[in-house]
Write a structure and sequence with these properties.
Elements lengths: L1 H13 L4 E4 L10 H9 L6 E6 L4 H11 L3 E5 L5 H8 L4 H13 L5 E7 L8 H6 L6 E7 L17 H11 L3 E2 L10 E4 L6 E5 L14 E2 L4 E3 L8 E2 H5 L5 H13 L19 H4 L2
Parallel strand pairs: 1-2, 2-3, 3-4, 4-5, 5-8
Antiparallel strand pairs: 6-7, 7-8, 9-10, 10-11
Helix pairs in contact: 1-9, 2-3, 3-5
Length: about 280
């Protein structure tokens, strides 16, 4: 229940948590999400609220989200080709998502980021098309390395493209320079292109992990707190809340989760154990 999430956020804010990101699945299909954001905004200590969306409902909701107090938006978009888009989403249209991106910019969201998981044989040939989006619009395109999230049967190493390979393609067409002026709270390393309003970034979970800089935890839709996105350890906060725990007891469990964050993920181990949950269940 949303009120349970609000209580968890309030307790976490009391422990020093300042930034909240809503992910999915698709958070914009959740009834009451706009009001939920406005209530998060009222919690003392919360300074930044971000949201990751597939963009399908963004054109209609961007204004209300901005008014509610949402600070930043990420749109997950892996292709700019309509046929490929239909293949992977099966619903909606690419045009609707692009309209949502335009609307997010129009109502004043800054930054607006595109999350692009680069996959060999699917969208590697679109890298330069995504980079071109940053020329005339203040969009920040983040290229993300494919990771084995979900059932390991779905992880095909032949589809993996490293950030270095992506950057090589970009450098064939553009001059790129390291950038430190891009606002963000995550692991992406950003680069700018002279003459472009936006930027490009890289998230290198596989080729160069950033675990020593990780300051995040995941709260799943089932109310379970995960110290590491790529681990299977979970602490059941929903069960704790429904046992009529005090805020002090809840805070103690959250602190326990923080202390139990692993030094690094296990994605590159030779034999990955099958993951019990898919990404939409974890949030991302």
């Amino acid at each position: 229940r949303l009120e349970e999430f609000l209580r968890i956020i309030k307790v976490a804010a009391g422990l020093g948590v300042k930034k909240i990101r809503l992910t999915g699945g698709e958070p914009l299909v959740r009834k009451g999400v706009v009001d939920f954001i406005s209530k998060i905004k009222e919690i003392p200590g919360i300074e930044d609220i971000a949201l990751t969306t597939n963009g399908a409902l963004l054109a209609d909701m961007a204004g209300a989200l901005k008014k509610a107090g949402l600070n930043r938006i990420n749109i997950s978009l892996d292709t700019l080709v309509e046929e490929k888009f239909t293949q992977i989403t099966r619903v909606g249209s690419l045009a609707t998502v692009m309209k949502g991106i335009e609307k997010a910019l129009a109502v004043g969201f800054e930054p607006v980021k595109l999350n692009v998981v680069v996959i060999a044989g699917f969208n590697f040939d679109e890298v330069l098309n995504f980079v071109a989006l940053t020329k005339d619009k203040p969009l920040h395109v983040r290229f993300i390395e494919l990771m084995p999230i979900g059932e390991t049967d779905e992880w095909d190493k032949k589809k993996y493209i490293s950030a270095g390979e992506i950057l090589d393609i970009v450098k064939q067409e553009y001059q790129v320079v390291n950038s430190t002026g891009i606002k963000g709270a995550g692991p992406a390393k950003y680069m700018s292109i002279p003459g472009h309003l936006g930027s490009i970034g890289f998230i290198t979970a596989m080729s160069n992990h950033f675990c020593n800089q990780c300051n995040r935890m995941r709260l799943t839709s089932e109310g379970k707190l995960r110290p590491c996105l790529h681990g299977d350890q979970e602490l059941d906060l929903k069960a704790l809340l429904r046992s009529n725990c005090s805020d002090q007891q809840l805070a103690k469990v959250i602190v326990k989760a923080i202390k139990e964050k692993p030094l690094q993920h296990r994605l590159k181990e030779k034999e990955l154990s099958p993951r019990e949950k898919m990404m939409f269940q974890i949030g991302g």
